[in-house]
Amino acid sequence: MKLLRSLLEELEDLLLALQSTRNVTGNKRMPNRRKKKKQLVLKIQMFIEKVLSRLIADPSLVMHTAINLPFLNLLSSNAENTPEGPPWDIKSVLQTGKDKTKKTLSMTTSITIPSACDFHLHLRQDEMMRMVTPKVQEGGVSLAYIMPNLQPPIKTTAEALAYKAELEALAPNVTFYMTLYLSPELTPEEVRKAAKAGIAGVKSYPRGVTTNSESGIENYEVYYPVFKAMEEEGLVLNLHGEIPSDAEKDICVMNAEERFLPQLEKIHRAFPKLKIVLEHATTKAAVDMVKSLGDTVGCSITVHHLQLIVDDWAGQAHHFCKPVAKYPHDRDALRDIVKSGHPRFFLGTDSAPHPIAAKEGPKSNAGVFTTPLVLPYLAKIFEEIGCLDKLENFACHYGRQFYGLSHKQGFEDKKVTLVKESNTVVPAKFEISSTEDLGVVVPFYANKDIGWKITSNFY
Ligand code: NCD
Ligand code: ZN
């Protein structure tokens, strides 16, 4: 590891030296400089070959470097497929001095990253839970932060632990972190007990805004003693950031999130040390608000909100979720923040399966199902928006860093390799039960070619 680091430093020096010759080599009357440049190019070429051969011998080195250079990601992604060397021409890149990174990115055909962390996931109960939970790993996710909106909701430490045991039995390789449902029954004493038992957070649903939110909350101030205990115990407050629709006040699904934001700011000001996550952000206003607040405020972003706008769910039940996808400029803001690599914005899929009958019935249930293909969807989207090099931090590191959570022992270093391959078509449906006729769940982008698939998982 030390060796790789010092090699990188060496590379940086060489590139700087090359840069300084480039600044003056336009002048033909400086043959010495041209010679020096030629020598440097040769040195860098040899140097890159040296690094590459080490990476080919052990691609996991890239995983373990704290240095997250797009350059290195590219090397690692191509090294595995082409042991004879990189598919691009290092010599010409160096000699022309042109930044061909973009071109190279579009040539990326495989990536290897650590298995991902999903910081907002609905795994349901009974038969649906038994179908969905094993799919967490299939989607390339090894750490999952579980929502408590079951029927009835998970309100106590004992219930959360029993639920966790069920999930662990279904997906023994996955590290689960549990949450409690914020309700009047939640006391500061229960918060302390929950913290001791390793419960990671408390989820708040405003009353009536989404699936199973009938016992959600109406007024945050009555919960201040609970928030105080959470702040002291290090539990995270997960906010579903919408206020209920109210025609009199001109509030509907399109502005429900934006109108909620003053509430987020207020809670943060009252409890600056309390970690708060604004869940599944959908608006530019939300991105701007989270950015403007302190380091204790984070934000989860879903797969589908990076992809959809209002036109996509109006008339398409399988794209309907809460909060709903908004305007094109809102989606741009989500994409921009992800592209910028802001460490307080991370993956929380909000994958929320419903039987097809509930989605396509007279009143569609809110929720998009992405669990079985989380990383392939993300690879497609990040490639399309031109930031494949940002995928690893967004999906694997930033969330864990914000929460300060780790994988369970023995599962810290699992990797996933994704390969770009056309005709990678999303299944039309998943049967809820193999024995009873309980219907099917239709996944996000059913029947579409998403162009990326996982070839090695959890290795
Ligand atoms: C979620 C569900 O179905 O549980 N639905 C959704 O559209 N996101 C609930 C939620 O997180 O709002
Ligand atoms: Zn959710």
In short:
Helices cover 42% and strands 13% of the residues. By secondary structure, it is of the alpha/beta class.
Report on the structure:
This protein has 459 residues and is α/β, with parallel strands linked by helices. It has 2 domains: 2-108, no CATH class; 114-414, Metal-dependent hydrolases (TIM Barrel, Alpha-Beta Barrel). The protein contains 18 helices and 13 strands. It has helices spanning 2-24, 31-57, 60-64, 70-79, 90-96, 101-107, 126-132, 135-138, 157-170, 188-196, 224-233, 256-270, 284-292, 310-313, 328-340, 356-360, 374-384, 391-403, and strands at 110-114, 116-121, 141-146, 175-181, 201-204, 236-239, 276-278, 297-301, 345-347, 415-420, 430-431, 440-441, 452-457. Strands 2-3-4-5-6-7-8-9 form an 8-stranded parallel β-sheet. Strands 1-10-13 form a 3-stranded antiparallel β-sheet. Strand 11 and strand 12 (440-441) form a beta hairpin. Helix 2 runs antiparallel to helix 5 (90-96). The two termini are 20 Å apart. Bound molecules: N-carbamoyl-L-aspartate (NCD) and zinc ion. Zinc ion (ZN) binds next to loops.
Strand content bin? 5-15%
- Tally of DSSP helical segments: 18
Q: How many structural domains in the coordinates?
A: 2
Bound ligands, each once: N-carbamoyl-L-aspartate, zinc ion
User: In angstroms, what is the radius of gyration?
Assistant: 24 Å
Mean pLDDT: 86
Largest sheet: 8 strands, parallel
CATH topology name of the largest domain, in short, is TIM Barrel
Question: Poorly predicted ranges (pLDDT <50, ≥5 residues)?
Answer: 23-28, 62-106
CATH class categorisation of the largest domain: Alpha Beta
The named CATH superfamily of the largest domain: Metal-dependent hydrolases
